[in-house]
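=== Structure Prediction Worksheet ===
Name of assembly: unnamed complex
Input type: mixed (protein and possibly other molecules)
Chain count: two
Listed entries:
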Amino acid sequence: MLMGLYNYWIVVILMMIGLYIVIAHGNLIKKIVGLNIFQTSVFILYISIAKIDGDTAPILTEGVNHYSNPLPHVLILTAIVVCIATTALGLALAVRIKEAYGSAEEEDIQKKDNKEC
Amino acid sequence: MKDLFAVVMLSGIYSLLSACFFVAMNAVDVAITEASVGACISTLLMLTAITMTGNCKKRDYHKPLTALLVVSVTGGLLIYGTLDMPYFGSAEAPAHVHVAPRYINDSFQETGVVNMVTAILASYRAFDTLGEVVVIFTAGIGVLALISASPTAREDATSGAANHSMHEQHLSLRITTKMLLPFIMLFAFYVQFHGDFGPGGGFQAGVIFSAAIVLYSMLFGLRTARRVINQTFTKLFAAFGILLYGSTGLISLQNGGRFLDYNFFLNDPIAGQHLGILLIELGVGCTVASTMIIIIFSFTGRLEDLQNRKNGQA
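=== Predicted Assembly ===
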């Protein structure tokens, strides 16, 4: 019976992979990739909630009574575009940090900051 | 993995796979967006970024055991939390009983739009979408403020020559692109204006249109792309999209309705809804397309500046 929950488990696994990358990797670009994976897992969570067995895409068609839930689709559609905009902002920050510190590694940046204090 | 290039390419493939997953889950609108955003624009942005920050990374992990502990505890708790969740695909889940039936059953009578996703996006939750468009616009401004390319370096003619010869090499690629470009742009406009009847809308159209521009600037060089698309014009266009969106709301206020209530646009509420949704989607499309183009241009412009500076020193 528990197998009916497998969509959530996939989401949790993906989310934890993203979280692990964010925590354990020092490179700023890799951290952003990790955040992206985290975000995609949230998208998959929403879209899998919208799915009902035996439904079709939420576009009115004759002779079809069952549609997926359109509301999560709307939320995620906008979230994807916002996600790329914020990712671009994060990458821009990483590029500026690299220019200012000469490195995109977290530890190097920390070391330089400590030296200046 | 030590090679960031491989990481970026893998994340592009991952995005494409998740787009396929969205199609399998019947979320066609979402899949179009994810395919063009994830597989095209974000991959290119990351590639440009790693060229600037350096490809290889030195240390692989720091404190991996603590991280693993934190991650597994959080994951375990989350999985424990899912035990009370409704089963996958069940029709009685709480998500399907609250407002969703109203959207599914009444949206056609109330808005006259066949695609429910468009109806909700542009009519029921229009205020929400306005906020999201403003977020995208703000992110575009942020990128411009952080890494806007300096105009003096752009005029430097000598450094462009090396870049130019690189773009001249891939002849077959360039010819194929030239043939494909009009179709991509036409498809973007189709997605934009057909959003009422099929999958599509302003967000998808904006992203596809900017993907076409990205392809062009990738193969023909930023200099040529800048000649085709004026940057000042793009910035104005991004602001114009939000202005169009906001003033659509103000017009409905003026006609005696609430903000973004299109029933008061014309005498016929359904026609009013159609007009309102069209205008809103147009505003969204303008802003998204030009913001993406601004972001890509400022990234690649910064890259060229850096290369110019290096050439100047050498």
